[in-house]
Amino acid sequence: MAFGVDGVIPGEALVQNFPDDFAGRVTDQGAVNVEADQVIGALQHSSPYHRLRAGRSPPLKSARGALEWGFLMAATTDPNRAPDASRWVEEHGDALYRYALLRVTNPDLAGDLVQDTFLSALKGVEGFRGGSTVRTWLIGILKHKIIDYYRRSRVEVLASDMPASTEGDDLDHVDRASDRWSEAPSQLVENQEFWTTFTRCLSGLPEAHRRAFSMREFDGLSGEEICKVLGVTPSNLWVMLHRARAKLRKCLEINWFEAS
Amino acid sequence: MHCLESARLLSERRDHPLPLAKRIGLRLHLLLCALCRTYQKQLTAVCSISHHAGASPCSHCAPLPASRKQAIQDAIDRG
User: Fold this and answer.
1) Taking CA atoms, what residue in A is nearest to B68?
2) Which of B7, B50, B72 lies nearest to residue A218, judging by beta carbons?
C-alpha cells in the first residue's frame, strides 16, 4: 500500500508523526510503502501524543481510513476534539507557571508541578470533553497537583510550623488616619511593584501558614478541606489563618502602604 | 474584650460562625475602638487583594523559563 503525496496523507506527514514506524520508507515520489497492518499498529501502539494526533477512537477498519480520520481530527476546529498537545507549553505554560509560583513560591517546584500537569493531562486527554477551555482544564489538574504536594509533604512542614504565639504585634502599624488601603484590589494586583511586594510578604510567612492561607484565600477551599490536606484540627487552622492574615497585613502596611 | 482578641475574632469569623456572645462582644468592641475598625478594614482588604491575586493571570509576572519550556516540550513529545 502506498500513500501518495497528492493524497490526504502525504508521506512526509506519516514519517513526521510516526518516525519509528515509517522513517526510511518514503519513495522518490514522496509516497510511503507500508502494509496496512503497520499503519494500524502504529496508531494502536504509538505514544499518547501520537494517539492524540490520531483522535480519540480512530476507525481502524482500514489503514487509510484510520489515518485520514485521525489527521483530520488533529486539524479540525471542532471544539469537542481532543486538544492539540503540541501547542500546550507555548499557549499555557506561562499561565500555569504563574499560577503555581504564587501558591508554592519556589520557581523550581513550580516548574516541576507544571511539567507533571502537562504529562498527566497528556495521559488523561481522552477525558477532556470540551466542556471547558483547555486552560481551565489544565489549571484544574494543576490545582490538584499542588494540593497533592501539600498533602505529601505535610509532616515535615507542620512539625516546625505549628502556630506560634506572637500575637503582641497584630495591631502594630495600624494607622487610624490612613485611607491608603482603599485602593481597588483589582488595580493593586495589576501593579507590578505591588505584586513584587505582595509575593515577598507571602514568602515571609511560615510554610504551613502560607499553605493554609493559599488554599483558603486564593482558592476558596473550605476549612474542612484544608484541615484534611494539612492534617490539623479546625482550631489550629483558625489560628494559622489568623497569624497569616495578620502578618501579611502588617508586611503590606510597612512595605507598600506606608512606603508609597 | 481587648484588641488582640478582637483581631483574632475578626479573622476567625471569616472561617466559621462565631458564638452569639462573641459576636455581640466583637460588635460592641468595634463600636468603641477606632483602631480595631481600621484593622477590620485592612484585614478585609488583605483578603480581597488575595482573592484577586489568586484569580489574576498576572501577565506581568515572570514567565516559565525557556529552558524549562523546552524540557517540558521534550517530555511531552516523548509521551
Assistant:
1) A111
2) B50
Closest residue of A to B54, CA-based? Answer: A218
Decide: helix, strand or coil at residue A239.
Answer: helix
Q: Which CATH number fits domain A163-257: 1.10.10.10, 3.30.70.660, 1.10.3720.10, 2.30.42.10?
A: 1.10.10.10
| pTM of the predicted structure, to 2 decimals | 0.72
**Which of A93, A192, A172, A177 is closest to A135 using CA atoms?**
A93
What distance in Å separates the CA atoms of residue A15 and residue A122, rounded to the nearest whole number?
A: 22
- A97 and B79 within 8 Å at the Cβ level: the answer is no
pLDDT per residue as tens digits for the range A86-102? 778 888 999 999 999 99
Of A78, A89, A88, A86, nearest to A129 (Cα)?
A78
Query: CA of A20 to nearest chain B CA: how many angstroms apart?
Result: 12
Q: Name every chain A residue with its beta carbon within 8 A of the beta carbon of B19.
A: none
- Domain residue ranges in chain B: 3-57
**In chain A, which residues have their Cβ closer than 8 Å to the Cβ of B2?**
none
CATH, domain range A85-152: 1.10.1740.10
ipTM of the prediction greater than 0.95, yes or no: no
